[in-house]
Write a structure and sequence with these properties.
5 helices, 66% helix
Length: 113
């Protein structure tokens, strides 16, 4: 999968507050579907769809033991979002540095005249 498609999947998964809260919960450690669903006021099939989006984006992985499915964070894909955000921050910092330099040049010209 192309890097931009991977980033699209990751940011799509992160765009929903329920999924972000699930990730926050999983940052404390692995949890079963029922443990993850407990804080949310929604039907289990709807909640499982959120887990499916997270798993398809590979932000989480699951394993099934008997009838119990347990989810945990898969940290590798978070690097995709981190890398994209770092690139954007560097781009904007460079633009702001050039703008700052331009403003300083204008101030110097104005003070000389």
């Amino acid at each position: 999968m192309a890097q931009s498609a991977v980033a699209d999947d990751v940011f799509h998964a992160l765009s929903n507050s329920t999924r972000r809260k699930v990730l926050e919960q999983l940052s404390l450690g692995p949890a079963t579907v029922s443990e993850l669903a407990a804080p949310f006021d929604m039907k289990l099939p709807s909640f499982v769809q959120h887990l499916s989006v997270l798993e398809q984006s590979r932000l989480v992985k699951s394993k099934k033991r008997g009838r119990v499915r347990t989810y945990e964070i898969a940290p590798k894909r978070f690097k995709v979002a981190e890398h994209w955000l770092t690139e954007q921050r560097q781009l904007w910092e460079a633009r702001l540095d050039r703008f700052d330099e331009y403003v300083k040049q204008l101030e110097e010209r104005e003070s000389k005249s």
